[in-house]
Amino acid sequence: MSKSKDTPYYIGLGIIILIFGYFAVTNIVHYINKDKVVDSNRSEDRAPVADKFLKKFNTVPDFEFVDQNGDTITNESLKGKVYIVDFFFTSCPTICAPMSHNLKTVQDELKSHPDFKILSVSIDPDYDKQPVLKNYADRHDAIDGLWHFARGDKEATFKLAREGFSAYVGESQDSLIKFEHSGNFALVDREGKIRSRKDAYGNWMMVYNGVEENGIAPQLKEIIEDAQTLLNK
């Protein structure tokens, strides 16, 4: 075969090799990038989330309460513990009972950890005296020494909720409801800092949904997993 006849053959073969190589390299790059995305998602959205993926928010301000057993509970007495905080009142006709029911689930999942606590703070201390809190605690099978239903100065409690936990609390215009408050749970680490993960959209959330509201499910699985992460640290 002459040189002049061979030239088109080699040119055509070269073009084919170039086209094949382009698509091969493109696919390799695509799958590498895809794997990087998967790895990134696994590292930030995996459950349970590693400690380094739980953001540290503010340190909880100083507080002092008395629980259903007459014991004084402070941020110092809870130092070194991992605990969950919510705000409620025993005569609440709306979300408080479901919140407490959900916390019972959390309690039962984490009760084997001696360093785990729950602090449910009343926003109606004038009514929620110690016997009332004790009765409410018994109705929800609260474990003594683990789950504290507590009361303190009303003004200080409202300030703690709003400034310490960015939680909404307030007097209600409806005399039957008495008070309004958010249905969230906050998770506090051993250093007294509020901790939480990213939500499903990649945004940092400071608190966990404690009760189903507006079609949004309570985040019990998430807060249990994250509490376990902090407890096992």
UniProtKB/TrEMBL annotation:
A Pfam family cross-referenced in the UniProt record is SCO1-SenC
| Sequence similarity | Belongs to the SCO1/2 family.
Give the intrachain disulfide bonds. Answer: 92-96
Q: Does the keyword Repressor apply?
A: no
Q: Indicate yes or no for the key word Membrane.
A: yes
PROSITE patterns reported for this sequence: THIOREDOXIN_2
Q: Where are the transmembrane segments?
A: 9-32
Which InterPro entries does the entry link to?
A: SCO1/SenC (IPR003782), Thioredoxin-like_sf (IPR036249), Thioredoxin_domain (IPR013766)
Gene Ontology molecular function: metal ion binding
Which residues are Cu cation-binding? 92, 96, 181
Keyword list, A-Z: Copper, Disulfide bond, Membrane, Metal-binding, Transmembrane, Transmembrane helix
Tell me the protein's name. Cytochrome c oxidase Cu(A) center assembly protein
Identify the residues that the record assigns to the Thioredoxin domain, covering every copy. 54-229
Superkingdom in the source lineage: Bacteria
